[in-house]
Amino acid sequence: MQFQNTLAFARQMDTSDKLKEYRSEFHFPKVNGNEVIYFAGNSLGLQPKRSPSYVDAVMDDWASLAVEGHFHAKKPWWDYHERLSVPLAKIVGAKPQEVSVMNTLTVNLHLLMVSFYRPNGKRYKIICEEKAFPSDQYMLQSQLKFHGLDPKEALVEIQKRPGEHFWRTEDVVEMINKTGEELALVLIGGVNYYNGQVFNMKAITLAGRSVGAYVGWDLAHAAGNVSLELHDWDVDFAAWCSYKYLNSGPGNASGIFVNERYLNKDDIPRFEGWWGTKKETRFLMKSEFEPIATADAWHLSNPSILSLAPFLASLELFEEAGMPALVEKRNKITGYLEFVLRAIAKEVSGNFEIITPVDRGCQLSVLFHGEGKSLFKYLKNNGVIADWREPNVIRLAPAPLYCSFEDMYRFGQILKAGIVGKG
Ligand SMILES: *Cc1c(COP(=O)(O)O)cnc(C)c1O
To answer: Which residues does the annotation say bind pyridoxal 5'-phosphate (predicted)?
Structure first.
């Protein structure tokens, strides 16, 4: 497609955008009375306008039914979470029974380690990417220490090559093969939070499983952003948060994936609680745990219905739009953003480079070689909400559900004015 850096062209793209009506489903913050250009959907997605009514419904049921709401609310609370599994399974490419919603991301990663990180004799090492998201680093380091191991020795971090901004699949696979029988687990962020790279999850999963290791993925930046086929890729487990691309609300619940080969198994170690035992016999209050035949067996507590409510509202939007249409628009809008950035760089000799590789979702990470921070502030004061990462990177994520092509064009004009103003 031949892009043009003009308002008319951007508007024409919006007119032919099949998902254009979804923009009006969201609340946009305002700066100087105008709706912002929102690039931070990879950090906290916008609020769907329909979300409050889902929360209100729970509050109303609580007011009018109290404890009876567990079974007699319009959407009964005792199986409320099950409504999320089907739409979520479509988003991550899983069977519904392989997906569940519970707790929050880092908590779930720890819980999944109980089942999938079981160091045994000489098989104890974990492979992850260098400079993983800090919470994942802390999680892995503390798991290793919990097992009496030294993270410096047992945690193998895949490096980028000198001078490169991305990881190479062949380097990951080579390290997996080299670690071989010592490798217990591969756990990587499927889409890297910093450079926006999408890892080759299929190839890496195959490599890890081939040497007898478990392979899990942190999908915080992947869920709702890129096409996933967790079941077909034969991934062992995964977890993701829902407040980024999935727009469920700040700090909201996490999704997990557990491959069906681990469901209905008696011999899998797992921390257990009453919400993981069979619904049919749960309220008999027996002392014997009977695991639910789905990933729900990993549930501990009865979930916060007030947080699942806006999550359900947001998943309905994904159901309606569908991942294929989202991915199609994502490729176009991200391509257009890249085009606009390059056009502006030429017009005003902008001193920056895009460090996101071609394998990407909607995020572009832009490395500034001059005064990135002051430019970032300029953008913010002029209605562009992006995200700053040390030492000099601005992350731009045009979420396809609510960002428009006109946003990309307008952003380019603001960026240009910011660069010229400083020069
Ligand atoms: C956003 C993010 C988290 C956040 O973890 P929480 O437990 O939800 O606070 C963790 N890991 C990665 C890779 C992330 O991108």
So the answer is: 105-106, 133-136, 218, 221, 243, 274, 302
